[in-house]
Design a protein that fits this description.
Blueprint lengths: L25 E2 L8 E2 L6 H6 L5 H15 L6 E5 L5 H8 L3 E6 L2 H14 L4 E4 L11 E6 L10 H14 E12 L10 E7 L3 E13 L4 E12 L5 E10 L3 H9 L4 E7 L17 E8 L2
Parallel strand pairs: 2-11, 3-4, 3-6, 4-5, 6-7
Antiparallel strand pairs: 1-9, 7-13, 8-9, 9-10, 10-11, 12-13
Helix pairs in contact: 2-3, 3-4
């Protein structure tokens, strides 16, 4: 898969701007804007443009994980919460039998169209991450950066992990990547980056608007300033709710899933030769969980 010729002002992964911890249940003051409210995931072409640059390195890392930890050749792979399917398409292009699953139909339709354009095939299924069903087991599964955090409750997150475990072959792996809050963590701040293609340019801003520490949920404001073919720039906004984890909360959750074992931890540099320790200082983590025999 050839990514568009993009330029990035700020690489979203793995670094962020400093964040400032606020009090429980605090909210940023409202600011008047002339932006149009949208559903972020209903615009997959604009959404995924901001993440395409990382796709090849993520796919290479997945293949490295398969070779290093899975005791058999990996053929069938599942992406739960595939969104626009950037990784579904890349893994299909690399020869895997890929299944992508999501609840957003516009995103699945976009992925199907892009698959046809590159001459690849994949199975796309509209199912819930917390309760899905496939007839055949998978050799490996993955959940890309922070998709897992859309599951706002402990019950939903646990159900997802158990469902993944049920669908993996013994010895298969689940690669889960997400941001967690360090022990001396900071929750507030803004990330900004931009992308330019021959068709459009987009300036992105992702900021924390509200933190409910009791429910362990943060509300993020996502802003896209889109300019198409040199026309007037449109400002589009959406709000995303993501579950918060610190290292102990994440370890506690994983321990409840009897079928999966954490065998290695990495960070968002996606370097198979540079594992890290899951500790109170961890921030961007990639967990390799293996289905027990």
């Amino acid at each position: 898969m050839n990514a568009p010729d993009c330029t990035y002002d700020l690489l979203l992964f793995p670094t962020t701007e400093p964040l400032v911890l606020k009090s429980r249940n605090s909210t940023k003051p409202a600011v008047k804007t002339d932006s149009e409210s949208i559903h972020w995931y209903d615009h997959p072409e604009w959404y995924e443009a901001g993440f395409l640059k990382e796709t090849p390195s993520e796919a290479r890392f997945l293949e490295d994980v398969f070779r290093k930890f899975v005791p058999f050749p990996v053929e069938r792979v599942l992406e739960a919460g595939c969104g626009s399917g950037r990784l579904v398409r890349e893994m299909a292009r690399r020869g895997y039998a890929v299944t992508g699953m999501d609840l957003n139909q516009p995103a699945l339709d976009f992925c199907e169209k892009k698959l046809k354009q590159i001459g690849c095939r994949a199975v796309l299924s509209k199912q819930d991450m917390t309760d899905f069903q496939f007839d055949q087991p998978f050799d490996a599964a993955f959940n890309a950066i922070n998709t897992f955090r859309h599951l706002e409750t402990e019950a939903a997150a646990l159900s997802h992990l158990k469902c993944v475990a049920k669908h993996l072959r013994p010895g298969g792996v689940f690669v889960l990547s997400l941001h967690i809050v360090p022990h001396d963590g900071e929750l507030w701040g803004t990330e900004r980056w931009s992308v330019k293609t021959p068709e459009f340019s987009i300036r992105y801003a992702l900021s924390v608007e509200q933190v409910d520490e009791a429910k362990r949920v943060e509300t993020l404001k996502m802003t896209m300033k889109v300019q198409i073919d040199g026309q007037e720039e449109k400002k589009l906004t959406d709000h995303l709710r993501l579950r918060l984890y610190d290292v102990e909360q994440l370890k506690s959750l994983i321990a409840k899933v009897k079928g999966l074992e954490l065998i290695r931890t990495y960070d968002f540099w996606f370097d198979i030769n540079d594992p890290c320790r899951l500790s109170k200082k961890s921030c961007d983590v990639v967990l390799v969980l293996q289905k027990k025999a």
